[in-house]
Amino acid sequence: MIRQPQIENIKEDGGKGRYGEFGGQYVPETLMHALLELEKGFDEAIHDTSFLKEYREILHDYSGRPTPVTYCERLSQRIGGAQIYLKREDLNHTGAHKINNAVGQALLARRMGKKRMIAETGAGQHGVATATVAAYFGMPCKVFMGVVDVERQALNVFRMRLLGAEVVPVSSGNGTLKDAINEALRYWAANVEDTAYIDGSVVGPHPYPMIVRDFQRIIGDEARAQMIEKTGKLPDAACACVGGGSNAMGLFTAFLNDPVALYGAEAGGKGTDTPEHAATLTKGRPGVIHGAMTYLLQDQNGQIIEPYSISAGLDYPGIGPEHAHLAKSGRACYEAVTDQEAIDALMTLSEKEGILPALESAHGLALAMKKAKTMQTDQSILVCLSGRGDKDVNTILHVLDEAKTDQGGRK
Amino acid sequence: MMNRMSNYMNKKQDMMFIPFITAGDPSEDATVELAFMLQSVGACALELGIPYSDPLADGPVIQRASKRALSKGMSLLGALQLVKKIRLRGVKIPVIIFTYCNLLLQLGEETFFREAKENEIDGLLVPDLPFEESRGLAERCINHGISLISLVAPTTSEQRMGKIGASAQGFLYCVSSLGVTGVRKKFHPDVFPFLERVRAACELPIAVGFGISSNEQVDELRGHADGFIVGSAIVSQIERRADRLQKSESLSPAVEEIREYLLNTLLGKHKVGKNHERTAQQAETLSTGKTG
């Protein structure tokens, strides 16, 4: 169930949407009107019971919520520590948690009289979710996607087109997610009057980190009640993967005031001792990216560095500002998980439980398995399984083939 | 203390020409020569853009300029120090640094203000720092004698326009149309009532930017604004000659061609002479002021 949003910290100088020193609205003047309008529209909607009712009804009837919590008996035995539970966001319509937010923002867009939707996407999951709800609501939709990602994620590009969305390849910058966000924001600035920008994660200028969190907190709110029902108590820890961090914020928000340890898994890529990773909190410095003050990967002059991860959904050089705040305040703990650790976790879950997780979610699972090992058997850890892994089968096949070749070579 | 900004930028001018170029595009030497040329055709101030990996407010032309300059290793600090060479070349008009917020954050304000003083920089424009986020910086800019340039857009509400207009420094930058920088053929008719609103909210000179590329557009704005900012139209000409601008033997003729282009398409002969004279005269007054 969705709760009333918290009133955000107001910074001394009047800046809004602050999480400690992070967040804010670092955007061109051309976007300020749209952000202020969106903030007002969201504030009205979230206090309107009929709006919340419709949001929950659509998620129930169309996406199959509530998603279950699954106890992983064989996996837990194998680890030999805390009992592992999965919040099954992979069982949502379109196969990931992204639909929760897309439904919420599309409803908000319709309520605010917007005629068209735009979105950015990296791996394509948020693009697919937005294209899906655009079809459901009968609204035209443009999805901005870096040219490199268009090539890497051909299947999702096809899915979006099937759903009637226009996929706009973005060749500016490096042609990846960060450039797709830049381009979506540029397009929005030129078309703010009738267009809604459906932001896919808890990133960007205020009010987006708040809106996306509040539309994703249904994950944690459901899971909290389900854990109490199943085990008679709260979990001892909750864990999720973090790119921008929407599924993690969705999970964490319900537990912020509970004695529950919170863990976020960043993409460690080929290792944080190499340049190829997306471990923003581990290796980044505070700065401004896409309209928010947060941690980001940047060079010494402040130019943004292109991140790397085997998982396209974690491949983002920034992180949601609320995560930056939770990290700095120590309320949540973030650790890097490498490509290899994620692949291992993915294979273990497939073999032990018959669940093929998305590569993104496998990062969260890998960290949870590490933590479970250090915990007692009467303790529990709840993992957000944010998406299913069907989309990643080709990538996994490729990695396993390479590993075989390597071994062959050594012999 | 003399204020170069208000000497060169005031409402007495007939349509102040405020050009934008990206520092280091396509080389430091080219930037110095282009700056000098722009002053000679009557620029009242120079906006010097700092290349950034993620220029959110810019269209494709300036994005590409950023890429060219970054590939040459240009940085905010490098650009601030380049202004010293621009000054040595004889550029006397105010120089306004146009930088995205993250570059300024990473350099640090202390270093910025020190270098700005050292290199005779007059203004600062941070396109991704709206009124609400810029109050602290605005105060520190005043303390350091730097004009923090504010922007207003057609979508800016009356309430915010009042606040922005009342605290603006130097001049007020009016964004002519929604979207990003880049050449547009015509103004939206709403631009004129918008400029009326800006006039009512601000005592400083007002200048219009985004999409200006022709003398006809400048004529249309006359009477509604005090100046105009031209970026992409100039940067396109630089891009077209990027190779020649990088070679010392072809630098001067390439700059000369851009001068001709600006005189023919943008500035119109009748007004350039006037502005140029005035600028030269002011430059003299200024240097007299300096020695005295």
In short:
Chain A: The modification N6-(pyridoxal phosphate)lysine is found at residue 98. The complex is a heterodimer of chains A (411) and B (292). By secondary structure, chain A is α/β, with parallel strands linked by helices.
Provide tags for this entry:
heterodimer, A: 411 residues, alpha/beta, 6-stranded mixed β-sheet, 14 strands, 18% strand, globular, disordered N terminus, B: 292 residues, TIM Barrel, 9-stranded parallel β-sheet, 14 helices, aromatic amino acid biosynthesis (chain B), RibuloseP-bd_barrel (chain B), lyase (chain B)
Write the layout of secondary structure elements.
The complex is a heterodimer of chains A (411) and B (292).
Chain A (H helix, E strand, L loop, with lengths): L17 E2 L2 E2 L5 H18 L2 H13 L7 E4 H7 L3 E6 L9 H14 L4 E6 L3 H13 L3 E6 H6 L1 H9 L3 E5 L6 H14 L4 E4 L9 H9 L1 H14 L5 E5 L4 H7 L8 E9 L10 H4 L1 E5 L2 E5 L24 H9 L2 E7 H15 L5 H15 L6 E6 L7 H18 L1
Parallel strand pairs in A: 4-14, 5-6, 5-8, 6-7, 9-10, 9-14, 10-13
Antiparallel strand pairs in A: 1-2, 3-4, 11-12
Helix pairs in contact in A: 2-4, 4-5, 4-9, 5-7, 9-11, 10-11, 14-15
Chain B lengths: L3 H5 L7 E7 L5 H13 L5 E4 L10 H12 L4 H13 L6 E4 L2 H7 L1 H10 L4 E3 L9 H9 L3 E2 L1 E3 L5 H10 L4 E4 L15 H11 L4 E4 L5 H7 L5 E4 L1 H9 L1 H4 L2 H20 L1 H23 L1
Parallel strand pairs in B: 1-2, 1-9, 2-3, 3-4, 4-5, 6-7, 7-8, 8-9
